[in-house]
Specification:
Mean pLDDT: 96
Structural class: alpha/beta
Strand order of the largest sheet: 4-6-7-8-9-10
Largest sheet: 6 strands, parallel
Bound molecules: zinc ion
Number of strands: 11
Number of domains: 1
Radius of gyration: 19 Å
Low-confidence stretches: none
Number of helices: 10
Strand content: 15-25%
Helix content: 25-40%
CATH architecture: Alpha-Beta Barrel
Order of helices and strands: EHHHEEHEHEHEHEHEEHEHE
Distance between the termini: 26 Å
CATH topology: TIM Barrel
Length: 344
């Protein structure tokens, strides 16, 4: 399917990606791992969970839903398990009682075939929305969170991953996806590696003809700022609620769309619609409303599901307040889905 222009309400609302797994799915996964259920039951369970998540997004009024990454235990592991050349040694502790099965690259990496296309096709088949979001972990973050036991350097590994991710994004494009988000939470953690990390991301999106967003979170955006123009993506989805919207000036001069994080995913207190509206009015000092998407800071995965649901609802209600003002003041009611590298 080719790119097409889709109309969206002004200030389109979306999610970053992950969403709490329903309690029953977590129980099912435990049972599956313990051998109480068969692999053939898993597809049905994950599909049902995606339907539930999309329904939550739709009831909240989110314009661009995701599948909540229901099928992914962890954002690096999921891809490492599907790319040839990785091996898992065992869990390493990342923080508190959270463990991460850190993958190791032990031989040349090879693309085995689509990793997220079936996820996308199922999501599209159950979502009412014309546009859905598919997330892919970026080459730098996969390289940074893996042991490199094969390539000469981390840089070489990241570029190999970029070639593979490029094929994956093109497979999604071929399948009809319109909007892919590359997740790079690790991007700014080693400022001395930024130059080639940015080139690796550009390699991953080379020749792609659909909308690509880049999500970077809990980062020092001053490290990212010099690369706003150079990164060949059409949108940056960044986190601001967690910072109390204090450092908005860091997006001054951004000539791309902003996915504006208005919901704090690390706090169970549910924002009010008025707080959301206030934050959106504030960011419009720096970004034209035509170039603004509204989303939570990050994935909602770690929140209780009822809190995640309530936060999305507040996000949408708050956005609607500002939409009314925009319609009245500027006559702006709709925007089109854009893949342009600059905005406006
Ligand atoms: Zn994030």
């Amino acid at each position: 399917m080719a790119w097409r222009e889709v109309k969206l309400p002004a200030l389109p609302t979306t999610v970053i990606g992950s969403y709490p797994r329903p309690k029953w799915l977590r129980e099912f996964i435990k049972g599956l791992k313990a051998g109480r259920y068969k692999e053939k039951h898993a597809k049905e369970a994950f599909d049902d969970a995606v339907v539930a998540v999309v329904r939550d997004h739709e009831v909240a009024g989110v314009d661009i839903p995701s599948d909540g990454e229901m099928r992914r235990d962890e954002m690096v592991e999921y891809f490492a398990e599907r790319i040839e050349g990785f091996k898992f040694y065992g869990p390493v502790r990342v923080w508190g009682n959270h463990y991460f099965r850190k993958p190791a690259v032990v031989k040349p990496l090879k693309y085995r075939g689509p990793m997220t296309v079936d996820e996308f096709l199922f999501l599209r088949s159950v979502a009412k929305a014309e546009v859905v979001k598919v997330t892919i972990t970026g080459p730098y973050t996969i390289a940074d969170w893996s042991f490199n036991e094969y390539y000469e350097s981390k840089e070489e590994l990241a570029f190999e991953l970029a070639r593979i991710i490029n094929r994956e994004i093109k497979a999604l494009e071929e399948a009809g996806a319109l909007y892919v988000q590359v997740d790079e939470p690790a991007l700014t953690t080693h400022p001395d590696e930024m130059e080639w990390a940015v080139q690796a991301i550009n390699k991953a999106v080379e020749g792609v003809n659909i909308k690509v967003g880049l999500h970077v979170c809990y980062s020092d955006y001053r490290v990212l700022k010099p690369y706003y123009d150079e990164l060949r993506v059409s949108q940056f989805a960044l986190e601001f609620a967690n910072r109390g919207f204090r450092d908005l000036a860091v997006i001054k001069g951004l000539s791309k769309e902003l996915g504006f994080g208005v919901i704090d995913v690390h706090n169970r207190r549910v924002e009010t619609p008025e707080e959301v509206a206030k934050a959106i009015r504030k960011v419009m000092r720096y970004v034209e409303p035509e170039c603004l998407y509204i989303n939570p800071d990050c994935g909602l995965k770690l929140l209780p599901r009822d809190v995640a649901r309530a936060k999305l609802k507040a996000m949408v209600e708050g956005t609607k307040i500002v939409r009314k003002e925009l319609a009245r003041r500027k006559g702006l009611e709709e925007v089109v889905l854009r893949k342009d590298l600059t905005c406006p």
